[in-house]
Amino acid sequence: MSPASTRAAASGDPWPEIDRLAAELAAREPHLRPLLEETVLRCATPGRIVGATLARRLAPGNDSSLEDLLTGCFDGDPGLLGLTESDLAAVTARDPACRDGLHALLNLKGFQALQSHRAANSLWRRCRPGVAHWIAGQAAAALGVDIHPAVPFGAGVLIDHGTGIVIGETAVVEDEVSILHGVTLGSTGNERGDRHPKIRRGAILGAGAKVLGNVEVGPMSRVGAGSVVVSAVPPYSTVVGVPARVVRTRLPDAACIRPARPRRVAAQALA
Prior knowledge:
Blueprint: H1 15-28, H2 33-41, H3 46-58, H4 64-76, H5 80-94, H6 101-107, H7 109-125, H8 129-143, E1 145-147, E2 158-159, E3 165-167, E4 172-173, E5 178-179, E6 184-186, E7 198-199, E8 204-205, E9 210-212, E10 216-217, E11 222-223, E12 228-229, E13 237-240, E14 245-250, E15 256-257, H9 263-270
Parallel strand pairs: 1-3, 2-5, 3-6, 4-7, 5-8, 6-9, 7-10, 8-11, 9-12, 11-13
Antiparallel strand pairs: 13-14, 14-15
Helix pairs in contact: 1-2, 2-3, 3-4, 5-7, 7-8
């Protein structure tokens, strides 16, 4: 019996299931057995599972010191592992390509990039900016996701694919946000201090969306793919275009209100 399988299965605890799936996969795929033993089956704690997996992604040469550093973050920072578990629940629930928690842990680089950032942010908050920046740089090089280690992320965040995401120092990402590939949360280049976007609970940022400046994307709002946001997005709204404009407003009960089109546009549509 592996160390992981001896852990009590608390309500909502994903780790016993991940351990079971890893054992089954190792039996079916001998080529993957060494990886699964190193990252799941021989790891005594969930923090070690996450640390071992990330270390092999960020530094393929099996850097034991990096693994120990990352494991220390997830085992030693109260609440950090709970955020990882909430992210696992989010990706398995909201990403139709994700089969299960083991798949997310081993294969989905958006999830791996977010957990790498959570470790870097933990170190940043504990006044270790040098190593926090180093982990962020390793994640950017290995996974194509560039997030400043100071950025706070809420629970249950989904980063889908991840490639090309850039998030600046003073951004904020709240609970249950979904971010697709190619998203930028940047500054306009004309600001100092607090200069990056604030993404509120439940917002969805479509592929290639750019949100620039210290603007707020409201709760449960949606930014369309390829849109450029330079002003505040109201709650429960959908914005699209360059620059982005509101095309739909949803009430909390999910009813939709479409803004009236200008008469000229409507007349052209009828012609």
